[in-house]
Amino acid sequence: MDCETARDRFSSLWERELSPLEEKSLKDHLASCPACGKEFEQFEKTMGWLRSVEEVEVPEGFLSELQKKIESRKGGLPGAEPGGRGFHIPPSFKLPAQAAAMVVVVFLVLYLTKMVPIDGIRTRVTPPIPFPLSAERKSETMLTQKETEKERGALEAGRPKGGEQVHPPVPIQKELEEASAPPLKAESKKAEAPASSVGAVGYKAVDSNEAAKGKPLSPEPGRAAREQVIKERSAAASESPREIVLRVADREKVISPLLELVKRFGGEVVATEGDAFLASLPTESFSEFEKELAGFSSSGKTDLFPAKKDAAERSRFEEGVKKEEGSQKSQGRAKLAAEGGNRSMIRIRLVEK
Amino acid sequence: MIERCKAGDPGAFAEMVLQSQKKVFNIAYRMLGNAEEAKDMAQEVFLSVFESIKDLKEEVKFNAWLTQITLNHCRNRWKYLKRRQYFRTDSLDDPVETEDGSVPKAIYDPADNPEIHLEKKMIQRLVQRGLLELTEEQRELVVLRDLQGFSYEEIGESLRLPEGTIKSKLHRARMNLKEILERSSH
């Protein structure tokens, strides 16, 4: 007998399962092979240890604890079966319910992404610009983009961070361009002044006006406002305000009579900015008004500037107008829009000597 | 008794628990190496029995069925504990934490001999640690055969293995345990 065979029979020898002949043969090998003999000694010791391991007693209160557990499971959740561990939903219902829940989540996400403009979706449908823009129109478009970005920034302020970076809203730009294309073309013939910031003022005015009327916001609140901006802008651009520089000795003293004069001529001050006033006047009374206005000037005359001559000053003024209170602007612009072409815009700038 | 358990007799169920609890608890304790875990698991076993005994078809095979449930619970529990790297082995005679501090467990020792008691305790610990180093299947075989004294037939019924396979696997398990105990006792 070889060592491997002998060692394979240790268990059989220990359990006395070998035939007398096999047992004698194995014992002979163990007596003649010290290594196997030692191995068997260790084996016997291990088996002795195993057999010496006593059973442990069950902890006290085992049965009573078990009975409590059974009671608590019996009086478990309603609908729980005795074999269940709590509320049990059959798999035949569970899977369709999960699928339906997934569909609802997907639709909810789609609905929300439609509600709130997402740049990722817009950039996919970027159209080419349909017609060449003049330098003025380009700058105007850029300003409009800035406006829409601002608006979007306000919208996205409430959304969780970590999303995509804000990109120019191309489809909206497209909408703007498409909607404004005909008036812009006409406008470029009529007036040279872009009046882009006036447009921005108008846009804001429309928004707040709408809010003041209590109109519910559409799912795309910026869209209607932007369309209105385009209309306002083209209207405002077509009636570029004349500018009158009034040289006065004391600016403060002149302001209230000036306002009264405007009222007297059936006009109204639409916006104020420090030393300048933007007023709307009936066109027919404009020349009379100008004469009266000359009386305010310490030098007895006024400087009349067409809008295009002082573009820098004009833009500065428009910057100031932007800062005006929303309500004042909105009312003024709304009236302007309502009255249309019967009125003229005039900007009166007071310059102290 | 099994008939009455199936019929929902609480007295018969309690009787069955009292008859089988020691076996179930000991298998659980040797398989998991922790008395607290073993107690919880043994109760889970009886809860399973309570809930599914009505489905038992062959009442004569109740013991094999109970052993199967116990081993299944042990396997699941072992996996759970292994995932949480829970390998602490305690002994029933480890000190017990009480409000007054740590006190030794009162273990009845018939010999009442501290030396014999210490040696026994040491062997018990060595064997338990050695068992936990075996594979799950080897541990099951050693526990059922050498600690619980199951016959090969009973083991075959519980593990659904032929006797020859059980014998050869058991022998390998014993030889492994021998190696482990040799290493740990030196």
Structural features, described:
The complex is a heterodimer of chains A (353) and B (186). Chain A has 353 residues and is an alpha+beta fold. Chain A folds into three domains: 3-52, no CATH class; 119-235, no CATH class; 240-352, no CATH class. Helix content of chain A is 61%, strand content 10%. Chain A has helices at 3-8, 10-14, 20-32, 34-52, 62-74, 91-115, 119-124, 135-156, 170-190, 196-212, 221-238, 251-264, 286-294, 311-322, 326-339, and strands at 242-248, 268-273, 276-282, 302-305, 343-352. Chain A has a five-stranded mixed beta sheet, with helices on both faces. In chain A, helix 3 packs across helix 4 and helix 10 packs across helix 11. Chain B is globular, with a radius of gyration of 18 Å. Residues 103-110 of chain B have low confidence and may be disordered. Chain B is mostly helical and 186 residues long. In chain B, a hairpin with a 2-residue loop joins strand 1 and strand 2 (101-103). Chain B has helices spanning 2-6, 10-32, 35-52, 62-83, 114-133, 136-147, 152-159, 163-185, and strands at residues 96-98, 101-103. In chain B, helix 5 packs across helix 8. A two-stranded antiparallel ribbon of chain B has the order 1-2. The A-B interface holds A 7-8, 10-12, 42-43, 45-47, 49-59, 62-63, 65-67, 69-70, 73, 82-83 and B 14, 17-18, 21-22, 25-26, 29, 35, 39, 42-43, 46-47, 50-52, 92, 120, 123-124, 126-128, 142, 146-147, 167, 170-171, 174-175, 177-178, 181-182.
